[in-house]
Amino acid sequence: MKLQIQHVGKRFKDNTWGVRDFSLELTPGLLGLLGPKEAGKTTLLRMLATITKPTTGTIKWNGEDIEKNPFDLRPDLGYLPQGFGVFPNLTVNDFLRQAAAVKGMSAKTAEQKTEELLQQFDLTHQRNKALSELSAGERQLAGLAQALINNPQLLVLDEPAAGLNKKERENLNKLLSDLSKDRIIIMATSDPCHIDGIATEIAVIIKGELQRHSLSSEKQLVQYC
Ligand SMILES: Nc1ncnc2c1ncn2[C@@H]1O[C@H](COP(=O)(O)OP(=O)(O)OP(=O)(O)O)[C@@H](O)[C@H]1O
User: Fold this and answer.
1) Domains in the chain, number
2) How far apart are the C-alpha atoms of 204 and 207, rounded to whole Å?
3) Which atom, in ligand 1's list, is nearest to the CA of 40?
4) Domain of residue 20, residue span
5) Does the keyword Signal apply (predicted)?
6) What CATH number does the domain containing 163 carry?
7) What is the reported pTM?
8) Cα-Cα-Cα-Cα dihedral sign, residues 30, 213, 5, 162
9) pLDDT (tens digit, 9 = 90+) per residue, 170-209?
10) CB of 40 sitting under 6 A from ligand 1
11) Which atom of ligand 1 is nearest to the CA of 158?
C-alpha cells in the first residue's frame, strides 16, 4: 500500500497557487498535515480525494496515476471534507446508506457496516435524526462514519477533530490510532494538539509548500501543544 505525491501543484482560475511542488511518499500510518489557515491543506486533500486535478505533478496510488485511473483509487478511499454540511435534511442512517451506495457496496454489506459504525460512534439512538439536528460533534462523527463505510485503505480527513469535545476527541484519537496500523490516514489540522500522540509522521505545509516532513516524536509536538 503506497501513496506517492510527486511535485504536485494546484493553480486556480485567478492564477494563484494553492499548492506548489509538493512531494511526499506514504505507507501505512497516520500523517498529520499541519499548517496555518490558508496553507493549502484543503487544496491538497481535494486532489488526493480525486475531487480536483493537480495542475502539475502526479499522484500515484499503488503505482497507478489517479488522474488516469480515478476508479482504481475510489473504492479504497474514505474522505471527510472540512465542515461538511451538504445534506442537512438527510437522516444519519440515510447518510451512511447513501455513502455506501455511492461506493458501490451491496445492500447487505451496507446494512451491516452501517450498524457497526453507528454503534462504534455511539450514534445508534440518533440514527433517525436529520444531520442538522445533531450537535457539531455528533455531525462530525457521522461524517467520519460515512468516510469509513467502505473500510478504506486511504483515509483523508480534513480537520476531523473540529467541533469535538475532549471525550469525543480522545475516542477519535484511539480509533484513528488503531485504524492507522494497516492503512494510510492523512489528517489535516491547524492545531498540533489534535495530532499529538497519534501522528506517526508530520508534514508541515505553509503557503502551499512542504516545509518539513519528519517522523513524529512526542518531544516535537510538545513544543507546539
Ligand atoms: N477555488 C479557489 N480559487 C482561488 N483561490 C483558492 C481557491 N481555493 C483555495 N484558494 C486559496 O488557496 C490557498 C489555500 O487554501 P486552502 O483552503 O487549501 O488552505 P487550508 O490550509 O485548508 O486553510 P483552512 O484551514 O483555512 O481551510 C488560500 O490562499 C486560498 O484562498
Assistant:
1) 1
2) 10
3) 18
4) 3-222
5) no
6) 3.40.50.300
7) 0.93
8) positive
9) 888 999 999 999 999 999 999 998 998 899 999 999 999 9
10) yes
11) 22
